[in-house]
Amino acid sequence: xxxxxxxxxxxxxxxxxxxxxxxxxxxxxxxxxxxxxxxxxxxxxxxxxxxxxxxxxxxxxxxxxxxxxxxxxxxxxx
Length: 78
Prior knowledge:
With 78 residues, the chain is an alpha+beta fold. The protein has helices spanning 24-32, 66-77; strands spanning 15-17, 40-42. 27% of the residues lie in helices and 8% in strands. The protein has a two-stranded antiparallel ribbon with strand order 1-2.
């Protein structure tokens, strides 16, 4: 960022805010149905707020599938 390069953060240094009562199956069912994610990312590191993906879940959440993660990145690349 300091040298004019672009960067995007997918889950690193983020904290995903979502209903943590939801389990893997309920999140996956929404994903398969094409429902828009009802969570968002935040971070305590002000410097990266503008580069984090707003709805790509943080790396510590195991309720989200790898397929889900891959589709987010593929959609972003398109």
